[in-house]
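Troubleshooting log. The previous structure file for this entry was overwritten by mistake, so regenerating from the original sequence record. Sequence copied from the archived sheet and checked twice against the printout by T.R.
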Amino acid sequence: MSALRLLCLRHPLVIVKQNHLIRNSTLALAPADDGYYAFDIESRILHWYNPTAALIIELCDGSRNQKEISFLLAQLQESTGECTTWIQQALDYGWVKPIDAEFLDEYPSAQTVVDLAWDLREEGEYLASYVCQEYVVELQPEPSTHWRYLGEISHIVGRRERALEAYEKYLTLKPYDAEISLIVVALRDESPPERAPDEYIQQVYTRFASFYEDNMRDELGYNGPERVGSLLDQFLDDTDGLNVLDMGCGTGLSGAPLKSRSESLTGIDLSAEMLKKAETTGIYDILECAEITEWLANNKSSFDLIVACDACIYFGDLGQIIRPANQHLNPGGWMLVSVEKGDLYPFRLSDSGRYSHTQRHIEEIATDTGLEVLDIDEGFLRSEYSKPVIALMVLMRKPFKADVSCR
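Regenerated output below.
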């Protein structure tokens, strides 16, 4: 089955006559693995058409009557009787309709379908949203945002190849989008960069900062700070008065469980917008806007506890963050990092633009760095499109007698 194309009625070479059949303009179509998905915009019902039914819908382009369509199908060795029955069903349901002398079919505006696609997504009707977005790019292929959203919703419903096609089209219109450029690297299964580019982080969180906490906590059920606090309670008991570093502190969610243990709490983050939110909490004694590895390379401070909650997801090889962080960790100090659990050793860039890591990789980096792994806690971190994201919370400790060879 070929990719969807614009309705032939809109093509000047199509001759439209009375009693010819045409697809209803309120029927949004999108290719499925075997046939078409069809979403009736008026009834808001999603259908699936098998290949024959999908072909019938395509043939109902205003240039043929029912007899001519049945004849064409017979040439393809389709059952004429079954096809005639299905055409009648399509007429009864309003999926197709005959053209009469006063025929004037009004297409919905692209913005109307865009709004519907967003509403359906908010309701968790992802497949219907995807079908509507395919119709959007039929109706109005010029705006880059239409292709960006098609890429996103295609990926959500598991149509990875279509997501790549849509994102590549988007990048022809918006070539400097750092976020989508990194996602395309993943979708192409290319070798990923060592870490997410600074431009990617800044772009994502400039957009995300204003609604970050509401989205993460209320909508996605994010529990990273609680898991950090629980792990520290388990192993540090009542230890307090610590000099603490929160790497990738964001708006300060991860700093909340650290405050009671700290004499001094430093937060660093690459997003100035997120740091503005963190500043309003009053949790941190020091806040600095910097990329983590650059800050670690240029700063001389030492800490009793270093935490990276949801920061390692933007790094490939974790050695590039754990090794330099270890240089700032006092003997006997603790380091706690979280990663999204991966199934490809040692790590991979996922289609979300975040890196996932295996437990084996973390353990190897810890051993190589001279850190003792105290605990690896695996569990739910948050939801993503109604699916759970599993994270590993890894607590490590630096021996009191540090091995110089590991420094």
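The chain has two domains: 8-98, 211-406. Archived copy saved in two places this time.
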